[in-house]
């Protein structure tokens, strides 16, 4: 009887330990949320009446979910390869992205326009991102006082399942090649574009020159990810310039052997054979 009782106690103990394991959830999220376990939250979610909001208990994770949404948006932007556009999120705030646009043709050819993309804190359930240029740009779609692009004329209602940040940035680039005058915020620019194109070109030229003159300024932001440019230095930049113009990447001097390569079927680092390495050279 004593042996049978001991076996029963051990069985109950083993079953109790199994119930306490949370599986893969434990690897992703912290086990405590507001002094409550994930198991307790899950049980309440199952028993919760339908009129109660699930968001009440998920609120502690909203910041992480929004961060994942921003990472996803940036990945989509990288996949679309908008010509002449360079973007990077701020080192200090994920809702602030720095951008620079190189215009390669049209009336604004030669312009190098810096701007900041401001994303709402409650993204993606939010208003469209804001695009604010650093320099004064003469354009029908850009506010003359604030230098903010009129994004709402195209994205008047932001739908998280249909609209994405890359679409806003694509529109930002497009206005310098196909100049729209409807829903203008700079009425003077719109009127000149339609009535006196030569005068319009003159004022656009001033915007282009202004963007070039301020390109090398370093006191605009102390953010580590802010775009910074240096004037051409023959000693430092000549080789890179030749490579870029040739359109060929110099990879001969780069070793293709990765020190972490692992032979298939093993877990030992650097276990790949010399014959296998030679195949990649």
Automatic annotation (TrEMBL):
Gene3D superfamilies according to UniProt: Ubiquitin Conjugating Enzyme
CDD domains for this protein: UEV_AKTIP
SUPFAM superfamilies: UBC-like (SSF54495)
Pfam families listed in its UniProt record: UQ_con
Domain UBC core: 65-213
SMART domains reported in the protein's UniProt record: UBCc (SM00212)
Protein name: UBC core domain-containing protein
Organism this protein belongs to: Rhynocoris fuscipes
């Amino acid at each position: 009887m004593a042996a049978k009782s001991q076996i029963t106690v051990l069985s109950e103990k083993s079953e109790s330990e199994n119930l306490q394991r949370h599986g893969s959830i434990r690897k992703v999220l912290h086990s405590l949320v507001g002094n409550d376990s994930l198991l307790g939250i899950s049980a309440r979610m199952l028993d919760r009446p339908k009129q109660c909001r699930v968001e009440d208990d998920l609120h502690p994770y909203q910041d992480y979910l929004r961060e994942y949404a921003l990472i996803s948006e940036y990945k989509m932007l990288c996949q679309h390869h908008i010509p002449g556009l360079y973007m990077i999120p701020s080192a200090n705030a994920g809702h602030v992205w720095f951008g620079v646009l190189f215009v390669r043709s049209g009336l604004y050819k030669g312009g190098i326009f810096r701007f900041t993309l401001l994303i709402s804190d409650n993204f993606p359930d939010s208003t469209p991102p804001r695009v604010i240029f650093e320099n004064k740009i003469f354009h029908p779609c850009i506010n003359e006082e604030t230098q903010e692009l009129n994004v709402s004329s195209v994205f008047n209602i932001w739908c998280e399942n249909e609209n994405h940040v890359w679409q806003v940035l694509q529109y930002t680039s497009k206005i310098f090649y196909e100049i729209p005058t409807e829903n203008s915020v700079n009425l003077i620019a719109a009127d000149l574009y339609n009535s006196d194109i030569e005068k319009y070109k003159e004022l656009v030229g001033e915007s282009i020159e202004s963007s070039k003159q301020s390109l090398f300024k370093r006191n605009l932001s102390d953010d580590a990810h802010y775009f910074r440019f240096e004037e051409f230095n023959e000693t430092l930049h000549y080789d890179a310039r030749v490579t870029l113009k040739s359109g060929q990447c110099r990879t001969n001097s780069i070793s293709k052997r990765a020190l972490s390569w692992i032979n298939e079927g093993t877990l030992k680092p650097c276990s790949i054979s010399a014959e296998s390495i030679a195949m990649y050279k």
